[in-house]
Structure formats: structure tokens, C-alpha cells
Specification:
Layout (H helix, E strand, L loop, with lengths): L1 H6 L6 E6 L4 E4 L2 E3 L6 H12 L3 E6 L11 E4 L3 H12 L4 E4 L6 E3 L18 E3 L3 H6 L7 E7 L4 H11 L4 E5 L12 E2 L1 E5 L3 E4 L3 E2 H18 L1
Parallel strand pairs: 1-4, 1-6, 4-5, 6-9, 9-10
Antiparallel strand pairs: 2-3, 7-8, 10-12, 11-14, 12-13
Helix pairs in contact: 2-6
The structure holds cytidine-5'-triphosphate and calcium ion (CA).
Length: 225
């Protein structure tokens, strides 16, 4: 029992992880997307699985494939990602939202491919549902909720604001200060903010190592509950 618990401290826990970008359809052949590779989210899913949790990965379009032990749900749009998370949130002990969700989506998706006409062309957009922000409002004290933030200015103030607004236990701030960090790279430099334990800076590391650090933070939080 003891030996098993140290090796798999998250045994018996359910984890929900979001990863990758979302694609917001303009017409049948075009979309609004972003450059998120999904690497960070997939690495976190693998790490939580390694720590013993039963992991469901809700993934936007990526080139990655999670290991067999992980239940992967492929989604495209922010709305699809929201729906997939909404039905699984309450039964999850650990929720990590690392997806780069589109903030805006076309008001209307054209049924046919849009033809080229005038010189100027405008697409009207509307806000998507904030998945973390919405689901965070119904978080229970048994749950560990982790969000991400990528900022280019006033990093800490913005991240602090997200921590509060989204009711998260932790916000992982991706530092843009370092060249090797963030979108498309294999490394990340993070700062973790928490209402429980304040602010902690980490060194530049591989996304696998960063996932280990985040896993450790989650294990400690779950053990304190
Ligand atoms: N997020 C989400 N649903 C959205 C937008 C963001 O769940 N529609 C989550 C992301 O997965 C991330 C966190 O919220 O964990 C912060 O995302 P970010 O884009 O940094 O924050 P926003 O609230 O969208 O604010 P802004 O883009 O204006 O900085
Ligand atoms: Ca955003």
C-alpha cells in the first residue's frame, strides 16, 4: 500500500486535461486557429497518468498522439472543447486547462466556400465561452484546478488577475522573456501563481520536465486536501 502510494500518488484520481489549439470555422475549408502545438498539455497528461491518475485528454487539432492508457477526445472548436469539459468537470479531481482556446469565433459559418469578391472583406466575430472561467466557478474544494497564461506585458499582474477571475488553484505563467520558451518550442520557463502558496519561479526546462514540476504541484495540493 505504502510503496504503491509513493510510486503512484494520484492513484484513484480522475484528471481532465485540455491541450492544443481550437479551430473556429469560417466556411467548410477555412478556419481561425493558432500555433499551439499541444506539446505542453500532452506532456502533462502523460505525467498525470504516470503518477497514477486516470486521464482524459480533450485535445484540439495537433500532430500528437497520447499513449493508449489516456482517453483522448478529439475536438475542433472552442464550443466543442467546452461541451467535452462541461460533462466531465464535476467528476474530475484534477483539471489542467493548457489549451490555447480561441477567444473569438465567427458569428456565422458559411455553408458554402466563400468566393473572392471585393477588395476588403470583414468577418464578424463573437466571444467564445471561457472554459476555465466558466467551469472554475463551480469548482469544489476537493478539486485541483490549473490554468495557463501567456502574457507579453505586465505578466505577473495579468496572471494574478486570471488566478482570481477563473477561480483557479494555480496559474502557470509562460514567460515570454526567454527565447526558448512557449509556443512551438520544446522548452518552457514557468512561474506558478497560487492563492495558497504565492509565486514560484522555475528554470528553463524541457516541456517534459515542466510537466513533472506541475505534476508535483498537483500531488502536493491533492495531499493537502
Ligand atoms: N481559456 C479557456 N477558454 C477560453 C480562453 C481561455 O479555458 N475561451 C483558458 C486557457 O486554457 C488558459 C487560461 O484560460 O488556461 C488563460 O488563457 P488566456 O488566453 O491567457 O486568458 P484569457 O482569459 O483568454 O485572456 P486574454 O487572452 O485576453 O489574456
Ligand atoms: Ca485568450
Amino acid at each position: 500500500q505504502n510503496h504503491l502510494n509513493t510510486a503512484k500518488p494520484l492513484a484513484g484520481k480522475m484528471a481532465l486535461v485540455t491541450a492544443g489549439p481550437t479551430y473556429e470555422a469560417i466556411d467548410p475549408v477555412r478556419f481561425i486557429g493558432n500555433h499551439s502545438s499541444g506539446k505542453m498539455g500532452y506532456a502533462i497528461a502523460e505525467e498525470l497518468q504516470r503518477l497514477g491518475a486516470q486521464v482524459t485528454l480533450v485535445s484540439g487539432p495537433t500532430h500528437l498522439k497520447a499513449s493508449e492508457a489516456i482517453t483522448t477526445i478529439a475536438v475542433r472548436s472552442a464550443q466543442e472543447m467546452f461541451d467535452a469539459c462541461d460533462t466531465r468537470f464535476d467528476s474530475s479531481d484534477i483539471i489542467v486547462m493548457s489549451a490555447a482556446v480561441a477567444d473569438y469565433t465567427p458569428k456565422e459559418t458559411a455553408v458554402e466556400k466563400i468566393k473572392k469578391k471585393a477588395e476588403d472583406f470583414t468577418i464578424e466575430l463573437k466571444k467564445t465561452t471561457d472554459i476555465l472561467g466558466t467551469l472554475g466557478q463551480r469548482k469544489s474544494i476537493q478539486q485541483t484546478l490549473v490554468g495557463f497564461a501567456l502574457e507579453t506585458n505586465n505578466e505577473l499582474a495579468h496572471a494574478q488577475d486570471k488566478l482570481r477571475r477563473k477561480n483557479a488553484d494555480f496559474i502557470v505563467l509562460n514567460s515570454m522573456q526567454d527565447k526558448g520558451a512557449g509556443f512551438g518550442t520544446d522548452t518552457n520557463k514557468i512561474t506558478v501563481l497560487s492563492p495558497h502558496s504565492g509565486i514560484k519561479n522555475y528554470d528553463l526546462k524541457s516541456k517534459q520536465e515542466v510537466a513533472k514540476d506541475i505534476g508535483q504541484i498537483i500531488v502536493e495540493h491533492q495531499q493537502q486536501l
